[in-house]
């Protein structure tokens, strides 16, 4: 009796399983696909050098925003940027490659916090230079690189994922926008769960970015505003380092949920330290502890969704939904840390801890559900869905196909 072999194939973000019974007269090597791994690595490095530096700089400078000025125009320009960058990256990288590359994008936001603190520290000494106030210099220094990068990016960024197509076969229909895929995103409960999952992470991210100088100032009121800005820099730098380490590990083991839960746990500990800490060192350490889990949580969650949606229409719609709902946290964030609550800011920390607890439950639910679905599909319990369907129709099911395995 010929043994049954299981192969995985896909379009980069897809991971399908199919069973075949090989011809007994054929050598096992005849059923394997020869892959030039050295050539694949060269192609991947080529993609990296053409994509990552530009999107890193674009997002970093879009995240540096120290003044509340022309807010409507800034929101109109910045709103589509991040979801577009996320979807853009999924066109060039397979889901086994995406976590680390997405880490560079998220690291741009983390380093923007550090750079923003340094700029605020330096520009504080420029007040009155050439007859201009410090805030005017800040707009000039932040604005010029953004304008230059926007123009340069138009010519530098690749228009199509030809390099990826050189590395692996692709099902063309999966990377084309279909109305049915857009509808599927709105009908999938898992997409809505990821949308809700992004809200608490963004609430913590926004409040941390906005109020970290206020929190540090409350730790020791004797510190000057310029010194406080300088003290924010190590926190954001540390968050960038930690996230890149976690992204590499997550990518190596191809797992997301446990790392996101770890980010939640560490973040909660940091908020507790800021509430109950009795001295300056303990409470400032709490800022670092929050930074440890800050981008791990938000970054892993943002990577987890698109890597489980192989079809372009559903993926791009779901990413837009996730970021839209997540960004609504920015409406509530400014009200969580009123000056009257200084120096402990118990309400803000307590609300954030509660939201993070909700996040942990939702991560656990998604993890359990995806593992359960994967096991059912491996056992063949959902094969009835594709009875009588052509291969093209099966491919059209995307992540709903019984042959698809979710990344957990």
Short description:
The chain has 408 residues and is an all-alpha fold.
Please characterize this protein's 3D structure.
The chain is mainly alpha-helical and 408 residues long. 68% of the residues lie in helices and 2% in strands. The chain has helices at residues 37-63, 71-78, 81-92, 95-123, 134-156, 162-167, 179-187, 189-219, 225-253, 257-276, 280-304, 312-327, 329-332, 346-378, 391-396; strands spanning 5-9, 16-20. It has a two-stranded antiparallel ribbon. A hairpin with a 6-residue loop joins strand 1 (5-9) and strand 2 (16-20). Helix 4 (95-123) runs antiparallel to helix 11 (280-304). The longest helix is centred in the C-terminal third of the chain and has 33 residues, at 346-378. Mean pLDDT is 79; it is low at 1-33 and 163-170.
